[in-house]
């Protein structure tokens, strides 16, 4: 007859086997979800052939885009996004183009708007930041602006094509591949036509195949028709008067008459001013349901599991999406050229 000790050990082994089986089942479900999500993203990208990317060197990319396969621009700003349910995680990594601290507010307000003021070429550009669209992205932008990260920087990229018209900024190095030395996950818009004229959005930092997209410091302003996948966090809108300042730059065209490259006109951001109280404004975030053991995991949905400032990971720079030198449209990926192997999301 087995002893009590033997019975306890047998029960413990049985429990361990059950836990292993459950974990294997959850892993299979996550893999299935990731595969399905990846296929869907590939199909969308194939139909649009657009991504906003920035890099530290130009590359000529000819892309044949079918405008009917993607959403067109609209004059109204998006009103909703697929927001995370857990606090923000900012992962340190790489070399920062300008030394800054990681955002300390990992549970920022999720609603409300914040008035910001850009000084662009000595002119005032008023911006309305909308927390409800991408709270973690807005929180990072506010933190960087408050620390002077964007002060005395230039907008390094301008795209002019049938489906991608953006001015990309946010790299203190001036090379188009710099970032803040950290990355975080984007919040994809959930509305149709999310990038109308006047939209302010974050560029993506290219990541390894199959890994979730990330963001850093680079951002772009939509000044014309832009048909790209809804992969870039929208953080706000530029005022009508502010867009006139932007248009004064974009109408001068791109260097060497390309579709993607450095703007011919000067595009210098002297400063970005934000309310000090907005940087630290926080709230209690809702948490994933305890009924789902995978809730809050860093899976294909892009949800962030915890609010923290991680000290490992790639930094937030983006690589530029090169413009085509031929009559074909330039590829429209918006990503940044920060210090990761690929750059932040910039517009092509």
Automatic annotation (TrEMBL):
Positions of region (Disordered): 1-28, 58-90, 283-348
EC number: 5.2.1.8
Major enzyme class: isomerase
Transmembrane segments: 32-52
Pfam families: Pro_isomerase
Keyword tags: Isomerase, Membrane, Transmembrane, Transmembrane helix
Keyword Ubl conjugation tagged: no
Domain PPIase cyclophilin-type: 125-274
One function term, GO molecular function aspect: peptidyl-prolyl cis-trans isomerase activity
Keyword match Heme: no
Job of this protein: PPIases accelerate the folding of proteins. It catalyzes the cis-trans isomerization of proline imidic peptide bonds in oligopeptides.
The protein, known as: Peptidylprolyl isomerase
Lineage, top ranks: Bacteria, Bacillati, Actinomycetota, Actinomycetes, Nakamurellales
